Every structure is written in structure tokens, then in C-alpha cells.
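Weekend entry, working from home. Most of the wet-lab plans are on hold until the incubator is repaired, so I used the time to fold the two sequences that have been sitting in the queue since the last round of cloning. Logging both here for the record. First:
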Amino acid sequence: MKSYRVLLYYIYSPIENPDQYREEHHLLCLQLNLLGRIIVAPEGLNGTVSGLTADCERYMASLRADPRFAGVAFKIDETDGHTFQKLHVRVKAEIVHSEFSVDPLRQTGIHLEPEDFRQFKNDPDVVLVDMRSNYEHEVGKFKGAITFNMENLRELPDHIHEIEHLRDKKIITYCTGGIKCEKASAYLLAQGFENVYQLHGGIIRYGLEAGGEDFDGECYVFDNRVTVPINHVNPVTVSVCYRCGTPTSRMINCASPVCNNHITLCENCGDEHGGTCADVCKQDPNLRTYDGTGYYGKLTQSYSPVQGFKSRQGQRLDVSIGGM
């Protein structure tokens, strides 16, 4: 058993004073030595953190002890160490940015638990619709799912026409942890789609609880691991190396900071080309050192997770991480 855990969660529950709660939550994470990123918004919480098993247990117990978050569901994975380099707790207008005029607390798609989804997804009247960004579904998606060429969920309205002909079908939306689908499925209902469902807990929970059957490739995650395996039943690789075309699920950032292209690159090409996506990138004078992972966090030499609670000239500092 590994000694660290990664927690992924969200909950839509009103927070009256997000700024005050951000301070309280930040302090809680410091006390428990957690790293990761958490969004606090008037509509609720969205977070993913890593820490020692005991610290994660205390964190989950603390959130569930708060009546506002008693119903929070955690996706829990094991890891050998922290999957984040820093801690960032910040206030935003939404816990997932959509700009949709929908309220998941009032209306959303029917939640399908992982095992129900596994049995329901092959119904001939069912259509799976991926609500993630293009770089995410390029490395892994459900077999036969419809995907959109969008950078973020805000672009969903521009792609609704691609599924207009499926209004008589049962639409099941899915995403990494379920949070995008709360709003995406609500938006589909607002657009007149009648039979709308969502995979509760997303791809991650489906893999943990139902074996991940028929998820092809790997699942993109927003931490140092970049991608994680989901399917333990009938796994296949769907993405290919950007340079040589060999099947691979290894996703990296180009070692050239000017390029920073997010690509799949096999181990051989990574080693041969120093983690770059093109020969021209090798000439970048600021080329980063490729260590085999292709993950480049911001420089952390002077970073301390407690700096957000220190004052300088009377100003409260915030702790920040890259890649949010």
C-alpha cells in the first residue's frame, strides 16, 4: 500500500463569504501538509490535493463535519508521494468556469453510478458525449463517444449543433471527475434535450469502482502524473507519438518553454529529442532539462506553503501554483 493519497472532489453548496472561507480552508491545508489546488466560489468547492494518508483522512473528515459539505464525495487514489509542487487556494466566480446561466442545484442530468453506467452505456439508444477539452480526450475516451474540438467548457454552446440530430437519444455526459457534467448536462436540458444523464463521479470514479471497462487510452489529470490508467478490463492505447506515430499514452509538455506544446511522446523520442516536439524547439536557448516526465512546474526554490499567511508591508500574500 502506498503512503500518499490524491483526493479529487467537488460540491455545489452555497458559501456566503468565499473570501473568509478561503482563509480558513487555506489554513486547514497548511496544518495538514497538503499540496494541490482548490477553488472556493459562492456556488461551492472544487479541489484536488495530495498528502499522507492520515492527513488526507483528517482533511476529508473536516470537510464532512461542515454541514455545507457533508455530502461531498471524494475520489481517492494511491500514490508514492505528493502529486503537486505547491498549494493554491483561491476564490473564483465559479468552481468550474462555464458562463452558462444554469444552476446544478436546481436542475441537472440524471446521475448514473459507475456500475449503472457500465451496464447502461451499451444500450443502442444511448450516446456518450465527452465534455472535456480536446487535449484530454485525445489521450483517452470512452469507446464510441462523441468528442468536441473545444479548449474549455465555455465553448460548449458552439458545438451543440453537432449533436442536434441526437435529441431523441439518451445522452450521457462524462468528464474527469464529474464537475463539468453538472453544468453541461444542465445546459443540455435548458437547450431542450430531454433524456440527459451524467456519469456521477466521472471517469476517475468509474475506473476505481467499476474497472474502467471500455475507456480507451488513459485519463488526463491535472497534477504531476499527467495521465493515469483507468481501464483494468479491456485496455487499449488510442493516442500515438507526436514524432514517430508509435502508440503511446505518455503526455508531456515540450521542453521548449516558448513552445510548451502539450503532446503525446513515446519514451524513445523523448530521450532522443530531449522532450521536444520538433527539431526547431531543440534550438530554444532556454530549453528546459528533460527528466523523462515532461512535466515542468514553476521554479520553487523560494517557495514555502506558509508564505500566504505572512504579511509584508501590511499586505496579505497569496500562495500560487502554476498550471491551474
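Second, folded right after the first finished:
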Amino acid sequence: MTAITPACQLLERQSEEYRDWLWVAPPMDPWLDDHPGPVWSADLAICQAWRARGATVYDDLSPAIAAVPGAVLFWPKAHALGEWWLLALCAQLPKGTRLQIVGENQGGIRRVLKVLAALGLGCRKLDNARRCTLFETRLGPVGLVPDDAWTSFEALGLRLVSHPGVFGHGKLDAGTRLLLDNLPASSEFAGRKVLDVGCGDGVIAAWLAARGAEVTAVDSSLFAVEATRRTLAANALSGSVLQGDVYAALPEDARFDAIISNPPFHQERAIDRGPAARLIREAPGHLEKGGRLTLVANAFLPYPDLLEAAFGGFDILADDRRFRVYRAIRRR
């Protein structure tokens, strides 16, 4: 099949067959369907798609990877996340394994040269086209380990554990702060079943758990799932953390007193409102009668129509012109 993403269009030009190579953090692209090989990704949708066609899927942060002739790393928008993937590959694959790194120029792929030099790894440029560049190196031992990428910081009286692959890495997002500032008094959450959709580094889940809520948190990113687990543990709090697409990981009969979310609307640089739309549309089916959906979103996003259709009405709890906090109640 023909490649549709710029990075895969550049790979399509190469003479390398990529037979049995490891694909690392790849995009959704039909060209990859014709290149069998294992995949390593922290993205649930990617893992599900590759697993559906019978590929070997590594969906752990430190998997035992079988020997491969080479690997291709798709450089992410987050520069620090790309560094983590490099460290992880050096830790998981044998010395001397070929590694090609491809990415869009506006996504910072050219910085790979400095990153590899700092790690003591050589590099050569193989090609550039479609506003992308392709580099190649060989893996070897480096002085850092992947776990060094994890950081922690204090916010709202909590210790938050963060990773470069997680939304708002290393800081409290302004929208999340506005959301938490406008939630009910802490006593209203004691003993209540609450769901955090798109949990990120776990700040919402930990804030709720600290107020006595019985918390379930979900995110499609394995980095976010691990970050939330670490955040809860760092604060001696309990909660269930699941990897899943919006409500997909929950039991069919799961019902909550509240759903609270700062839902994502970006996939890399593209806007993707699909998860937030499903969050709103399907929320009544996961709430007890009288249960509330409270979410924060950029003010320009068209969520009022979705909330009106799903709940028959909603309130705006806060609006600072950049973000809005919405609340909708299941009446029936």
C-alpha cells in the first residue's frame, strides 16, 4: 500500500526492505501493513491495530524483545520522549543493532544529531524528503537508563510523577487547575465512585483519592497509566488505573457517581476530538442517576452541542476565556 504520512513516504523511497525490523512508536499508515515485523508502542490504538493483523506487539515499557535485524524509531513531537525511546532501545537491543530514526523537520528531527552525539553514538543522514529526514546509527551502551526520564514535582499538596510521553509533562496544566478549583467541596467525594478519563500524570485521580473518593482512572497511553500509578503510590493513595480508550476498559455494568476529565483533543500536532466526543456522548450510560460529568476544555472547542445532545442541558462552572469548565447531570 502507498504511504500517507510524510515519515512513511520517506521510508518508502529507501532500498531497504525492512523485513522483520522492529517498528518503534509508528503512526497509523497503510504502508506499514506491507512490512511485517514486530512493533513497540505505548499507544493502545497502534497496539490493537498491529495485534489484529497478527504482528508481534510489545506494549510494555521494558519488554524482552527478540533479536531483530534493525529498528525504525519514529521521532515524536516531544523531544524528551524521543530521548527516552533511544535510551530504551539501547537498553533492550543488542550492541550494534541498526537503528534508523525518521521524523518531520518541524517536529525537531534534526536535533537527533546532538542527542546521539551526547550519548556517544555515531550517526549518518540517509535521506531527506517530504519535509522529513532519515538518520541511521548503531545502538550501543550509554551512560543513562530509561528510568532517568521519570521526574516528579509538587502541586496542590501532591507529589506528581511525570514522564515525557504524558500530557503536561513536568507541570500542572492551567486547564486542570481551573477544573479542580471549581469542583465541589472535598466532603462530597468521600466514599463516592469517581472516574478520571484521560488521567495523564494522575493529578485529578490523586486529588480525588486524597478526598476519599473511590477512584478509577483510564488513559490510552501506557506512559500515562504508569505515571498515574506512580503518582498514587508516591502519595500513599489507592485507585484502579487502566489502559483503555475512553470507556472501553471498563466492565459493561460499571457506573459512577461522577466522571471528571480534562480530555485530550490532540494527536501529535493534529486535532482529534473523537475521544472527547465519545466521553460526552457515552457518559450518561456510565453514570448513576444524578451523577455528574465535569470536564474542562479549551473555550473554542464545540462541546456545548455535544453536552446538550447527551444530557439535555449543562452548566458552565468557570470561564477564563481560555478554558471552560462544564458540568452536566444525568437526570433520568
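Plan for Monday: verify the second prediction. The chain has two domains: 6-146, 150-329.
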